[in-house]
Amino acid sequence: MILNQWYSILPSKSIKKNQIVAVRRLNLDLALYRSENGELGCVVDQCSHRGAALSLGKVKGDCIQCPFHALEFDKNGKCTFIPANGKSSTADMTRYNVKKYLVKEANGIIYLWYGDEEKATEYLPFFYDYVDNSYAYSEIEDHWNSHYSRCIENQLDVVHVPFVHYNTIGRGNKTLINGPKVEYENNILRTSANNEVDEGQTPKSPEECTIKKTNLNFMFPNIWMNYITEKIKVIIYFAPVDDENTILYIRFYCKISKMRFINNIIAFFGKFANKIIERQDKKVVITQKPKASSLKSGEKLLVGDGPIIMYRKIREELKSKV
Ligand code: FES
Ligand SMILES: [Fe+2]
């Protein structure tokens, strides 16, 4: 994982008021909860007293209460009450505090700050310039037994399209890979497929190619957008569970019609098209070894893997910066 980043980890709608949800993300077992007033809290899912899962407890006001002996913890992980010691107790409870994590919400997504809290930034990564409330969207999720780096690379891979998706988005036997051109600007890595039927011509170099109107965009650390047309986009956030598992949240965005309910219907069906394509990818990506990708993996990459090489380089740089 790259440290000191906001990771998209879960849809906001997954946690209702007064509900606690146990989630594993970024190799951490977390108890995420929402208080009566709608605010989120996130603490380690392990009580400081005798190790029970806090996620099995209850939300009490702004606090989370352990199911075992009912110790209470606030959003800062501070222990606020120990019933066994009685209401009148004035003893210092600092040693019972639990680890808390910074969480924020925007765009219907819960973000978790992974790293040093003092370095947390205001900005939450998202494609704000491309989608807004005028779009309808519909979301599906799927679990992949893969490291999130492999899932992301798959979404930047223009070489696999005519093979893995031969009967869907890759129809037409366009196996020859021109470029692709890759850019990295304002934290967005951008590329576009420029594939052709192989009639014996020499592929164009990345320099001879341009970024097309339909293009692929990736924003560190874990969110991706397929700009299909001005009115249709697909956004995926890849929530890292641990070193071998990722949950993909895939959104189909649409504003083809002036009428919201029609856009809702299109988005609803659009997500099933996404699902067919995503399942084609998953079948192959989960077999990749090693589970995580890396710049020095020894894989024999092709010119057409340019976007993947760029992703690996930037990822490496970001990892070494912290
Ligand atoms: S284990 Fe949580 S209160 Fe005892
Ligand atoms: Fe694919």
UniProtKB/TrEMBL annotation:
The keyword Iron applies. Keywords: 2Fe-2S, Dioxygenase, Iron, Iron-sulfur, Metal-binding, Oxidoreductase. Residues 6-112 form the Rieske domain. Pfam families: Rieske, VanA_C. CDD domains: Rieske_RO_Alpha_N. GO terms for molecular function: dioxygenase activity. The keyword Phosphoprotein does not apply. This is Aromatic ring-hydroxylating dioxygenase subunit alpha. It comes from Clostridium malenominatum. The lineage of its organism: Bacteria, Bacillati, Bacillota, Clostridia, Eubacteriales.
